[in-house]
Amino acid sequence: GYADAEQAAKAKVYEMRTYYTLPGRLPNLHARFRDHTMKLFAKHGMENVIYTTPQGVENELVYLLAHDSREAAKASFDAFRQDPEWIAARDASEK
């Protein structure tokens, strides 16, 4: 019930991140997240919670991830950053 969901939420660590792009590059960032980043986050134990672009803003992506702990967040990001699939996707989208 509600108490179980509340207890589970308390155990999680939430992390809000913001990306700023160069003018006109936000669609490319959306594509990278849609096609690669979100799947790789999940692969490395991160929970994709929400993604949004503030109304009236053309170069900003804000997103929220959930982790089981601060230690899990660090381990997940360390593994993510070293993943060859991520490195290839990042390099291709930055060209």
Order of helices and strands: HEHEEHH
Strand order, sheet with most strands: 1-3-2
* Count of extended strands: 3
Helix tally?
Answer: 4
Distance between the termini: 48 Å
Provide an overview of this structure.
The structure is a single chain. By secondary structure, the protein is α+β, with helices and mostly antiparallel strands. It is built from four helices and three strands, in the order H-E-H-E-E-H-H. It has helices at 2-11, 26-43, 70-82, 84-93; strands at 13-20, 47-52, 60-67. The chain has a three-stranded antiparallel beta sheet. A hairpin with a 7-residue loop joins strand 2 and strand 3 (60-67). Helix 2 runs antiparallel to helix 4. The longest helix has 18 residues, at 26-43. The radius of gyration is 15 Å and the shape is globular.
Outline:
The protein is α+β, with helices and mostly antiparallel strands. It contains four helices and three strands, in the order αβαββαα.
Keywords, separated by commas or semicolons:
95 residues, alpha+beta, 3-stranded antiparallel beta sheet, 4 helices, 3 strands
Topology, element by element:
Elements: H1 2-11, E1 13-20, H2 26-43, E2 47-52, E3 60-67, H3 70-82, H4 84-93
Antiparallel strand pairs: 1-3, 2-3
